[in-house]
What we know:
By secondary structure, the protein is α+β, with helices and mostly antiparallel strands. The protein has helices at residues 5-19, 26-33, 35-38, 41-49, 53-66, 73-85, 90-93, 100-120, 127-133, 163-175, 179-189, 196-214, 222-235, 242-258, 262-269, 278-291, 295-316, 319-331, 337-352, 362-371, 391-401, 479-487, 499-502, 512-525, 531-543, 553-563, 565-573; strands at residues 359-360, 381-386, 404-406, 418-423, 429-438, 441-447, 453-458, 463-468, 471-476. The protein contains 27 helices and nine strands. Strands 1, 2, 3, 4, 5, 6 and 7 form a seven-stranded mixed beta sheet that branches. It has a two-stranded antiparallel sheet with strand order 8-9. The relative contact order is 0.07.
Amino acid sequence: MQVDKQQFQILNALDAILNGNRQSELPQLIEAAGADKIINADLMNLARKLKRSAVVNFLATLITHNSAKPEQAPLILDAYQSIASSKLQAALLALPSANVVRLTVTSIIERRQQTNLLLTGSSMTSPATSDMASGNDATVAPDPVESAQSPATSPLAKASGSVAEHMLAMELAIDHGHPAIAADILDRLSRRSLRGQDQKFIAEMILERGDLSAKQVQGTPWADWAECVEQALACLRTESQQKLRGELALWGARCHIRAGQYDHSIRLARKATWRSQVLRAGSEVARALSFQGKHAECIQLLDEVARELCSLTDQVGTDWIEQNAEETEKKKKAFNVESAGQALQDLREALSAANVQPFLVSGTLLGYAREGGFLSHDKDVDVGVFGWEKQFEIVDALLKSRKFRTDFQSLRGERCNTLVARHAATGYCIDIFLYRERDGKVVTGVDSDFGYVQEFAFTPFQLREVDFLGTRFFVPDNVELNLAENFGDWRIPDKEYISHLESPSTVDPGGLIHMLVARLTLISAIPTHKTERIRRVANILRQHAGGEHAIDPALLDRIEHLFGAKAAATVAANPTSEKPRVFPGIFGKRISTEAVHAA
């Protein structure tokens, strides 16, 4: 989502003031920013998308009472206040009892009441229900079953209202975390005549809100999101919406994967037929195959993606690589040592309260041993914990600390190898690797977002305490041996090191998973112009040329010819004034299928 920087700064300032009970500072902020920047529907809508409820209430109030054209602001204000108080407000009560906005808000209230009932175990009566009992005619939807509603049993089955009211109701449902309700609304809209601009609004809203939901670490109902996308696709009937239809299909494919619905993911991904989406579609189908355990088929498809990438580049040239690499470089964020250190300190405190001892591993351990701190080119923080059984205690401790967010879907019992904790204050991620004893080694692994598990085995070790960034932390008692098993000659800095492929600790060099990771690393290195990484991966693939899952030597030669160091040197020696031709949306983060940590 593209956000105006000034709007974002104003939004954050308002959020801090309203949630910090510093309302006396509001006049100063309004004067500094300008009333037109505050009494602004775009700013209110941004607050809605980012789920800043206090700011939405404040801005909707200002717009309602101060704007010549408040439009939907009064209804939005009453909707948010109704949901916050669990009691329908005046503007909603004035609507017909079957109005879609009224029914949607009532349904949100009822679901929140049901959630509170489950969490507290106490009997609760919704004020919305009380309104109906006292004669206020507040229509209450029956408790729905998420993602299992037929049109006939849905609380919105007899909803009425304009297309605009249906779309407002849909936004309210999504912004309050109920894509299942939004799917019901979209099902109704799909049976109505929609203008092209309405279809476009629906698609863009789902994509934008979906992108924001994907950035949440926990609690996203992916099956409901998948159904929401399916219903949105049914609304897109105009031929001119083919590209948007493809974008929706790709997002829906990812939702189905996260919901464990792999066949549905493959079906949707294959609906993305716009030229700039073909490679991403192939990548998503390969991802679904990998999650199904069909890793050999996944490798074959990734090789086809690489061939198609070569063919497209043959047609338009390689100028797009330079532009894409420049854009990727601009988006990079410098590693903030202070913020990462704070995240690590908070993690240690949270886990210590649960008698769990985290210890430094991987790149963070390397930084401690070689540089006395974090690696300057690091991207995240790595710690380990003994025992896969500790995963439940870890997640419980992190959530109780209120300083971290994590994904409950990572809790996979004995199959769990990695947990990811996102530090709320800084946004930094900490990878928590679970170690277990097996065949005389201690083994950990990476639970990839591409559906495979890659394992690494080390010599067993005990723990000892050391000083790290001004605090005490645990490390393996055989630091040098552990680092040698992970990085080889670890004393020599090597920013291009690909631990997932080059580490001596890799359990299956040349095996099925190792060769799958090699394909993913190779493909993701092309659009970011990482010629050294391409060279290294190509060398690894050639070392296993006689293996069962070897790459076609001709394909590998072609990739190096088009995208390797020699190709880069040729481009540099023959600059062109021609405007770079890019396949928008194919590359970058969308095709980057595996974050490979450089040491």
